[in-house]
Amino acid sequence: xxxxxxxxxxxxxxxxxxxxxxxxxxxxxxxxxxxxxxxxxxxxxxxxxxxxxxxxxxxxxxxxxxxxxxxxxxxxxxxxxxxxxxxxxxxxxxxxxxxxxxxxxxxxxxxxxxxxxxxxxxxxxxxxxxxxxxxxxxxxxxxxxxxxxxxxxxxxxxxxxxxxxxxxxxxxxxxxxxxxxxxxxxxxxxxxxxxxxxxxxxxxxxxxxxxxxxxxxxxxxxxxxxxxxxxxxxxxxxxxxxxxxxxxxxxxxxxxxxxxxxxxxxxxxxxxxxxxxxxxxxxxxxxxxxxxxxxxxxxxxxxxxxxxxxxxxxxxxxxxxxxxxxxxxxxxxxxxxxxxxxxxxxxxxxxxxxxxxxxxxxxxxxxxxxxxxxxxxxxxxxxxxxxxxxxxxxxxxxxxxxxxxxx
Length: 407
Known about the structure:
Largest sheet: 2 strands, antiparallel
Low-confidence stretches: none
Distance between the termini: 49 Å
Strand content: under 5%
Order of helices and strands: HHHHHHEEHHHHHHHHHHHH
Number of helices: 18
Oligomer: single chain
Structural class: mainly alpha
Strand order of the largest sheet: 1-2
Shape: globular
Mean pLDDT: 84
Radius of gyration: 20 Å
């Protein structure tokens, strides 16, 4: 156990990143509206995430570069290179800035479920003080600029989140036969298609591919470490998947439809299963919000560093400026309750373009012997990668069409 804990890290940070308030909310809605029948969609998402993140980790260890740096080097056509760079920067940097308010708001919901509202009125504006608390915690952890400290704290938060949500699911005494059926027999109940797409889309996250490739080289340096990185990736993402499934199972125990988020779910669990069920759910939601509030700015800073060729240092001024801007915008928007709708729509379109683009480029790079040598993809890895590429194209198109209200 001690040896395993010593060798976990980057994979757990990826799990911390994808189990954010958006995933928690979608899992809640999936469970409330469709019971455990959509667990198979989460299982498919986890498989796709493991495949892509393993590739990203292998690339980071062998090349000792981030994905954005490798793309800049390998895409030789200057025009195509610039187009890809612009899409990456738009989707990751601007996208994460627009979603950061949601990450912080998720952490706030967890706090407010336990402590009540923390808003004050100042100069005609209502300010949520909990936003500043979450923002200060995230700021301190990122400003320290020490990967090992950041890793340990995020691993601890993920374990806290995992235990909280898993205990909540166990408390609801779920039907194990129904869970097995939902997990292994795919079904799509009426009006469930958007939830299915959402479950996959919030788990297979483009910025995590960049984040993982950058983080592994902070921890591992030689090809001999690939097996450790692979084990870390599989265990961490499976644990993340278990957390998501536990939220679906917990939500399936509630027989009312007026639940819109995990905070509502936590409050609804209390009369049925006792206050401690509410507290476990709230603690898990707080941990989910704060981990995503840390990893989103961090990923954006890594991407900007790779695209603009900055020095490889977490304490570098330019690197810090990127995550600071994103974090500050998130705190301001969440504390004032502002939703920058147009920016979020733009980010969704950019992410819709980015997921299939990056999945395709990653697959192409993973087959280049000049980059990976003997560690390039096997035939099985390529087949799985192509399957995920098809899914990502479908998801990307659906995301873009949804923004433009085609259906």
